[in-house]
Amino acid sequence: MRSGTAALAIGAGSTVLVIAAAYLQAAGDSPALNAALSLSVPAKYKSLIEESGNRCPEVTPNVLAALLTQESGFNPTAKSSVGAEGIAQFMPSTWENSGIDGNGDGKRDVWDPEDAIPSAAKYLCSIADDVKDVPGNKQSNMLAAYNAGTGAVIKYQGVPPYKETQNYVRSISALADQPSKGGKAGTTVTAQQGIAAVNAAQEMLGTPYSWGGGDVSGPSTGTCCSPRGRSGEDISGFDCSGLTLYAYAKVGIILPRTAAAQYAASEPVKPEDMQIGDLVFYGSSASSIHHVGIYVGGGYMLDAPRPGTNVRFDPLGSMRDLFGVARPIHGSTKEI
Known about the structure:
By secondary structure, the protein is α+β, with helices and mostly antiparallel strands. The protein contains ten helices and nine strands. The chain folds into two domains: 43-176, Lysozyme (Orthogonal Bundle); 182-330, endopeptidase domain like (from Nostoc punctiforme) (endopeptidase fold (from Nostoc punctiforme)). The radius of gyration is 19 Å and the shape is globular.
């Protein structure tokens, strides 16, 4: 986020971009209060999210859960490169003005989810009120204000023309919009779905790496610094999490956009239990994951490695900081 809002970290392994779908609903629609939580969240935060996610019509438990997934992957100790802190990634100045003592212990602690989660919901409702007269979808405008500031939303009379903010809104909206039909909420993907995701990714072999590139429809424009182009040149392609996002969207499963958030939305598996389609993560900790690939068997993964390369097969040992393997959890899928 920009100054004055709850910040969003942007980095080579943690880019927030298009993941799927359009904005929530037709312009002006707002969900009713008492909405249910259908997204999979850590059990210790479930009641907090359900209680906090019904403060106002624009904030639902799913929207709040999707925002926390996108901001920190439910990591209460997360700190971004621009200084945003905690599970909801509040900038210190915003926390000073908007943080509340959610658990009544006499302290307002940005690192305590019992304070930060209710504070995020309260702040969302506050900025929803600030931009209530702006045309367009109320939830989209609220999320844009959380990311870019209320001033930008008012100035542009809607989601501002910032790629970061537009993709931020789309990402959270798509994740929040996942239903829990068919009793499949909280289930891991099947072997058949994993194979189908690998097949979808394999069709993209040779596609250029593009930092921030990739959505549910395929390659998209990010920023590339390939040997054939000047640094910062726009090019259509995938980054690592954009490729995994695309592959699983092809089988009806919408993942969060960042590699770290994809790990948080997956179930860790032991090396001996790995199956084709599992996601392979690299980093020193869950909050510092910087790369993700799709396991294809035989000690290999399919991934979009780095600028100057294309989507390709790589050995799992091609990076030294293998953190773990996990199987995506989904709220709903289409059968394949």
